[in-house]
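User: Teach me something about this protein's shape.
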Amino acid sequence: MNEIGVPLPRLLEVYDHLFKSRDPFWNRMKKPLHLLDCIHVLLTRYVENPSQVLNCERRRFTNLCLDAVCGYLVELQSMSSSVTVQTITGNFKSLQAKLERLH
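Assistant: First, the predicted structure itself:
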């Protein structure tokens, strides 16, 4: 979607909404953390290339990302611990540190 010109802040908004809606589809597909994986990829691309977001919006978007990542970490910590949950938690903690350096 980003490749076809959908702004990164809008993509995060949509994926965040999808994740928070807790659609049972992802559990039925045996991929309950798929949306978090997608969000992680999306935000990692932003950290690697912040110029995807206009300079005047970058600080606000970075703050939005940090808030979202904190929420995802809380969600992950409330899940039963598995290797997958631990891996995704580690990925988001690493992403959080990178976002803080952008700040």
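Now, about its shape. The chain has one domain: 2-102. The two ends are 25 Å apart (CA to CA). If you'd like, I can walk through any region in more detail.
User: That's plenty for now, thanks!
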